[in-house]
Amino acid sequence: MSQSNKKLTALTFDDGPDVTLTALVLDKLDKFQVPATFMVVGQRVNDSTSDIIKRIVNSGHEIGNHSWDYSSMGDMSAEEIKESVGKTTAVIEKYSGTSPKFFRAPNLVYSQTLYDNVDLIFAHGITANDWIQTTTAQQRADAIINQVKDGAIILLHDVQPLPHPTPEALDIIIPTLQEQGYEFVTLTELFIRKGVDLNTAKGKVYSFVG
What we know:
By secondary structure, the chain is an alpha/beta fold. It is 37% helix and 16% strand. The protein contains 7 helices and 9 strands, in the order βαβαβαβαββαβαβαβ. Strands 1, 2, 3, 6, 7 and 8 form a 6-stranded parallel sheet that branches. Strands 4-5-9 form a 3-stranded parallel sheet, with no helix packed on it. It starts with 6 loop residues before the first strand and ends with a strand. One of its GO terms (molecular function) is hydrolase activity, acting on glycosyl bonds. Pfam families: Polysacc_deac_1. It comes from Acetivibrio clariflavus (strain DSM 19732 / NBRC 101661 / EBR45) (Clostridium clariflavum). Keywords: Carbohydrate metabolism, Glycosidase, Hydrolase, Polysaccharide degradation, Xylan degradation. This is Putative xylanase/chitin deacetylase.
């Protein structure tokens, strides 16, 4: 199967960074040698998490913007939106040395004002209810595997209250999808390899690309 014909999917993780919890996800990504994209909350990006942010970048992963404090933004004014997203982008640039290309709205709540005032690509995704603490690793894995198709953005969480078996679910998700012919890529690579121009991809929400 040529690279251009290979099925692609992008793992994304919300709500970090956290020194302990994000590291558990990074350990699994290291184990399988696959890249991912971490959609970070700005107020968590600081001196105390700088080492884990460096690890994310040095491991070949991407960092996206998940707002400043995870407040739903559906009713926010343009000024509030710009402040939240702008402050988050600034700390991402400060601590990671990279600029985010993608934005995920807190609680997946959108508005026209949000579209009009965020100059990033809106990445949604297929979910696994991994914010519900009673779901098991197998249930989380099954939810993703049953929904995935070529070009899918997978939406999981690196940070949720314990017990949080999403890292364990990756032990099922990654090899199962690889056996089905999927290659894991960052969000940027997913868009590029699916032929979607990053400069013209704004103004809509993507769960699948291509």
